[in-house]
Amino acid sequence: MGTMHDLTHPLEPGMTVTPGLPPPRFEQVWRIPEQMANVTYYSFSSHLGTHMDAPLHYYADGASLDELDFRRFKGDGFVVPVQGTARRPVTVDDVAPYRDELAAAQFALISTGWARHFGTPEYREHPYLEVDTAQTLVELGITCVILDTMTPDLPLAANPDRKDRPVHSTLLGNDVLIVENAASMAEVEGRRVTVMAFPIRIERSDGAPIRLVVETRD
Q1: How far apart (Å, rounded) are the C-alpha atoms in residues 140 and 149?
Q2: C-beta of residue 51 within 8 angstroms of C-beta of residue 207
Q3: CATH superfamily of this structure's domain 4-12+45-216
Q4: Tens digit of pLDDT for each residue in 25-55?
Q5: Rounded to whole angstroms, how far apart are CA atoms 112 and 151?
Q6: pLDDT in tens, 128-166
Q7: Which secondary structure element, helix H or strand E, spans residue 43, and what is its range?
Q8: Does the global pTM surpass 0.85?
């Protein structure tokens, strides 16, 4: 048996959200001892915290997460180590040394180390994938890309009108799912892992929070 690692940021009040989306709301509507049980009301967008994007996120006729076979959410993965700095592109050369490992996997986990900035202003100045890198992952047969950043595309500050999001389009347009805001992958960099990334089952969901867990395989 390998070692399991939780790569999920907890959902909590005041947490980092994508600019333009509403902050989450947490309200305790029942409370012991006034009521017989504790019950909390949650309200948040489908793209909060560690979450998965469905093709429906970018394509009106794309599949929603609940329409996908749940077996897609578990499989073999490989964690690609990348030296992440602000607005640094992740290039084809960054993933090229790991082509064989990625070709044998369904999940590509891109570890830039940017999770250490989660909850700070620096987090918005993250590294990003070049379109050619995304296309290479598609050609290698990857079915889900997992990132420790807010988006695989350029930081929103560098693309404020959001009219050009080519990496999202390249991946989702080829039925490759995207996981954003993974927690630190430092302990599993360069490792083969079994990935478990199950989204909340919500009807017609364009995205949903997930509990992202990996187990080392070697």
Answers
A1: 22
A2: yes
A3: Putative cyclase (3.50.30.50)
A4: 999 999 999 999 999 999 999 999 999 999 9
A5: 12
A6: 999 999 999 999 999 999 999 999 999 987 776 666 789
A7: strand 39-43
A8: yes
